[in-house]
Specification:
The complex is a heterodimer of chains A (about 475) and B (about 140). Chain A has helices spanning about 30-35, 40-45, 115-130, 145-150, 155-160, 165, 185-190, 215-225, 240-255, 275-310, 385-390, 405-415, 415-425, 435-440, 450-460, and strands at about 5-10, 10-15, 20-25, 50-65, 70-75, 85, 95-105, 205-215, 230-235, 270-275, 315-325, 325-335, 335-345, 350, 370, 380-385, 395-400, 430, 460-475. Chain A has about 475 residues and is an alpha+beta fold. Chain A is globular. Chain B has about 140 residues and is α+β, with helices and mostly antiparallel strands. In chain B, the strands form two sheets. In chain B, strands 1, 2, 3, 7, 8 and 9 form a six-stranded antiparallel beta sheet that branches. Classes of the chains: A alpha+beta (about 475), B alpha+beta (about 140).
Chain lengths: ~475, ~140
């Protein structure tokens, strides 16, 4: 039996049957939501994987996923039998969020809602960025795929789809080393061809927002953010390419579990010891998928810039780009000793603290920017990673608000017209997506992002910089 | 939503499909019908048949592999599988399946699916047939 012990208003210890402990970041309301699904059971199973260092952790937006919970963080030591698990990364490899800051203010744009310039902007974006099922014409085809998989965002910038300065504002420079194209199936390539520059569906979006409130003047100034500024937040990942990479490697590692000496409580937790050929193959394919996702967000950035220039005469620069679903080899200090660990973040965001050598020089003393989107029509936050995050969570925080209501329940309990009316009353334009998707992604289906953010700020894992509110949403 | 022999199961972030039939082929047929309703936003019938070989070593792998095959066909060809017309005997190359389907209706407003998952997967015998439960990542 597991047991929950509250440590402080933001931290809870999940005591495990074998005597170990997992860590949950949540207030009482968020913890109650986690206890309503299998999130904490899944966390306990992660804690039983070999070579775990420190506790398995659930962020305040955590909920039930597959294998790992969404909002899960765990690190494994290759020197101690540690593993890499595709289920600890998820299907949408390097799903992530990018924030663009424009040089225009919302106030002078005048009318909000349908018929105003923001509606024109949403439509201009929608004309350039395909949304929903499958593949569309994007100008990036099969012949480009090898470059995309090897070089990520740099491939797009090299093709004139972005600026060199963009790359410094992307985690890992928008390119994960070690992409192994031989570890990628023909089926993954087929699914990926034609999908670079597409948004996809589900919870993916492009949202035009305004900076509603600055919470840290100096940090906001350094990030180039000011009250009433128009910004654009976009959320997408590695599309069908990444989904297929995960599917392929979960199947193969599930079949190999016996040979690899692993007893799996859940085949979605299929894993391989770090350093094994199977682990190397997965990490090589995962890096290719991560690069696909960065290229995808870079191409979409270019299309959004075109729309901004056409409709508002505005320019935009990249503030930051965070990855949500990755397993990365990172250097961390554990009990005074420097160790190389494979840190899994599934539905969680890297949040390195001040001074980290991987941060660009101009931001190094601040800490890594962190982007925490709320649900459609609610607020989003810009924050910074902290030393506490480095000490407690391998430099990680939450990735969003986190679902609290199933898609089935949302469809049963909410109406598309009601959701649209509420958004219209708030002056938010919605374009793209389906009426069904609108209900499934309604704000009522998610936790309160202000509450989630209050936990990571209260626990000292993040320092809040600005609160953003939506003006127009292009739905996937 | 529910249809003839299938129903959706709740999951915090995603969707499960439970399907039942008098034998494995029939249960798989209902599973694919439920998946089609999710992908298209409403139940859909199709008549065009396509043979596929699912890389599967047991019934659980067959369920996951079949759902992934349907997701793949939709994504690369725009072809929506709506049922299972035939199921052969498994061999060294995989499990032969004859899918039934049609092009995705142009006005379809469904939920895109990333993949089938192993979480909560079950294939069990019950009085009167086979019951399958599988959750898909959306």
């Amino acid at each position: 039996m597991t047991k929950l012990d509250r440590i402080d208003p933001w931290r809870v210890a999940l005591r495990l049957p074998g005597g170990g402990e997992a860590r949950v970041y949540a207030d009482d309301t968020l913890l109650a939501a986690m206890r309503r699904d299998r999130c904490l059971d899944q966390l306990a199973r992660v804690a039983a994987l070999p070579g775990l260092v420190g506790p398995a952790m659930a962020m305040p937006d955590a909920h039930q996923g597959y294998g790992f919970p969404i909002g899960g963080v765990a690190a494994f030591d290759p020197e101690d039998g540690g593993v890499v698990s595709p289920g600890g990364v998820g299907f949408d490899i390097n799903c992530g969020v990018r924030l663009l800051a424009t040089d225009v203010e919302a106030g002078p744009l005048g009318a909000r809602g349908d018929g105003g310039p923001l509606a024109d902007l949403a439509e201009a974006v929608l004309r350039r960025v395909p949304v929903g099922h499958g593949k569309r014409r994007t100008g990036v085809g099969r012949a480009d795929l090898a470059g995309v998989l090897r070089d990520g965002a740099a491939w797009a910038v090299g093709r004139g789809l972005g600026e060199e300065a963009d790359l410094a504002r992307v985690e890992s420079g928008g390119r994960l080393a070690g992409a192994d194209l031989d570890a990628v199936s023909a089926r993954a390539r087929e699914r990926g061809a034609g999908q670079v520059g597409t948004l996809g569906g589900g919870n993916h979006f492009i949202e035009v927002q305004r900076v509603e409130r600055v919470l840290d003047e100096e940090a906001a100034r350094r990030l180039g953010l000011a009250v009433d500024q128009v910004v654009v937040l976009l959320h997408t990942g590695s599309r069908g390419f990444g989904h297929q990479v995960c599917t392929d490697h979960v199947r193969e590692l599930g079949r190999a579990a016996g040979r690899l000496g692993l007893r799996l409580p859940d085949r979605q937790l299929a894993a391989a010891p770090l350093g094994s050929p199977e682990a190397r193959a997965y990490l090589g394919a995962m890096a290719a998928a991560a690069n696909f996702a960065w290229a995808n967000r870079q191409v979409i950035t270019h299309r959004v810039r075109e729309a901004l220039a056409e409709v508002l005469g505005a320019r935009a620069r990249v503030v930051w780009d965070v990855a949500h679903n990755l397993a990365k080899m990172e250097t961390h200090r554990v009990d005074g000793r420097v160790r190389r660990l494979c840190v899994h973040r599934k539905g969680a965001t890297r949040a390195f603290g001040p001074g980290h050598p991987e941060l660009p020089p101009e931001l190094r003393d601040l800490g890594q920017p962190v982007l925490i989107p709320g649900s459609m029509g609610t607020a989003s936050y810009v924050a910074l990673g902290t030393e506490t995050a480095m000490a407690e969570t391998w430099g990680s925080v939450c990735h969003g608000a986190g679902r609290v209501r199933s898609r089935t329940a949302a469809r049963k309990e909410l109406s598309p017209d009601g959701v649209l009316r509420r958004l219209a009353r708030a002056g938010v334009v919605v374009r793209g997506g389906s009426r069904r998707g609108l209900v499934e992604e309604a704000p009522e289906a998610y936790k309160d992002v202000d509450r989630v953010v209050a936990v990571v700020a209260g626990a000292g894992l993040a320092r809040l910089v600005a609160r953003l509110v939506p003006l127009a949403v292009v739905k996937g | 939503m529910a249809g003839n022999g299938w129903r959706f199961l709740a999951h915090t972030a995603d969707v499960g499909i439970e399907a039942r039939g008098p034998d494995l082929r029939a249960a798989l047929d209902r599973l694919v019908a439920g998946l089609a309703a999710l992908l298209a936003g409403a139940p859909v019938e199709g008549a065009e048949e396509r043979p596929v070989l699912v890389d599967a070593r047991d019934r659980e792998e067959l369920v996951v592999g079949l759902v992934d095959e349907c997701v793949y066909r939709l994504e690369v060809d725009g072809w929506l599988a709506t049922g299972v017309a035939g199921l052969g005997a498994p061999g060294p190359g995989g499990w032969p399946v004859r899918l039934r389907g049609r092009p995705l209706p142009p006005d379809a407003e469904g939920t895109p699916v990333k993949a089938a998952t192993w979480g909560g997967l079950s294939v069990r015998e019950e009085a009167g047939g086979v019951v399958i439960a599988v959750y898909v990542d959306t």
